[in-house]
Predict the structure of Chromosomal replication initiator protein DnaA.
Amino acid sequence: MLERESNQIFSEKLRARFIELGLSKQTAAKITKLITPVKLEGYTLVSYCAEPFYRDHIISPKKDEIEKIVQECWGKEYTFKIESPSHEEDVPKIKNSKNPSSDSQITLFPEETNYIPEKKKKLKNKGHFEIPASSKADENPSSEENFQPPVNTEKPRTLDATQNFGTFIRCESNLVAYSACEAVAKNPGNLSNPLFIYGATGLGKTHLLHSVGNEIIQKIPNAKILYITSEDFVNDVIHKGIRVGKMDEVRAKYSACDVLLVDDIQFLEKKDACQIEFFHTFNELYQKRKQIVITSDKFPKDIPNIEERLKSRFLQGLLVDIEPPGFEDRVAIIETKANLIGLKINQEISFLIATHAKTNVREIQGLLKDLLMNQHMTGRSPTIDSVTTILKRRFPTGNMEASIDTTAIQKVVANHFQIKMADLMGPSRQQKFVVARHIAMFLAKEMIGLQIVAIANAFGKKDHTTVLHAMSKVKELLDKDDDFRGSFIQIKRKIEQLMQSN
Ligand SMILES: Nc1ncnc2c1ncn2[C@@H]1O[C@H](COP(=O)(O)OP(=O)(O)OP(=O)(O)O)[C@@H](O)[C@H]1O
């Protein structure tokens, strides 16, 4: 038997590691829950995971990382194995309903056997593919055969062919969303329905939505894919359905699709009639096992003025978020995008841009276009000076965070505490040095977006767990220690002043 206490330490370490690897807190917590060890086979720790998406796309690729933590907790001789449960009693029961329209019955991950087509020839006559719930379990549940194209279809007009998986730059902050979309595109209607992607503006949600559509249409050219924004849906319902009285046509349009891709669902807020209509559309498609992918700028529960029953539908699928890219990821995005448009920039310039353009990819693209235009007009590649000028134009009010690096932060902190840089950077555990070191590490993350490993390097630490410890210590003290908070704010102000003066 595995001891409860060591299990708990294992889970904590695992969660922290996943967050450090760039997963959101929610995803990290979910995965941690899924890989609670269940038994020991000799020196192999075995965990069962009944959720195929997480097992194959998130947990298995990170097996080495998980094994390292297993060894930290139980010893070097241990290995780790993730398995799909072979016996029903090994896993918590997953509810599986044949009537997904009832709140209490919809499942998070419906069993795959429910998606097996009964007879392919039946589907051909239907005009759209339909996957009966009472399928035989011995047929192949994950095959694309489940996804039969309709006979009579229109080509999608709204999908942007340039927004595909090939042009999407994968990084830690979007990896979970990317993998989920790829899995859904490979096996639509089967694993994660609906797939709900949320995150702030300009981080690639729409790009992923198009990628799913483009990928499916490549494999199944006749598939009826409907890409809409929620505003399109409102227009259809209000203008065509209610005002012109052609609601039947509106309903027919949506019920005939095989894949519904809905962008920016948050704009359905306060539109009650449209929400009711969307609720019925959703239920109908869901019952027919049609894939639904939805994007939003918020987690379902946080979208204001949307009916609870609609939110609960969204919560029943797979929820993935995209976070703003960290510093290294921004550099990778800048360099890839610059390369694509023929803009020549060196590493110093990509670092400079990454330091300033922090919030989203759209912003980075706009900036690179400005630089390209400048390159065309002057006939010269961008220089630090020309980039700084453009950065100042784009971020005129304080958002133009100065060319400040970790060293500048370290100097301000050392100066504030009246200590030497060598003490700030050194190994001494004297309280004053430790507090200063923790604050400097925290601000390197908060103010210039450095990733944990990069911060550890900048402070000459081999072990990045020191940085993780610093992060949680500072957060804790900010919450409970007024003096500490006062000092922290003063230091932050000094750094901000330095940024503005540069
Ligand atoms: N990881 C990425 N790789 C390549 N391009 C990206 C990536 N993320 C975003 N982009 C590009 O940035 C631009 C903005 O992305 P997109 O429109 O998908 O953002 P969004 O999250 O849907 O934003 P909004 O919520 O404002 O609609 C697009 O041109 C998109 O192609």
Notes: Strands lie at 37-41, 44-48, 79-83, 195-199, 225-229, 259-263, 291-296, 318-322. The radius of gyration is 26 Å.
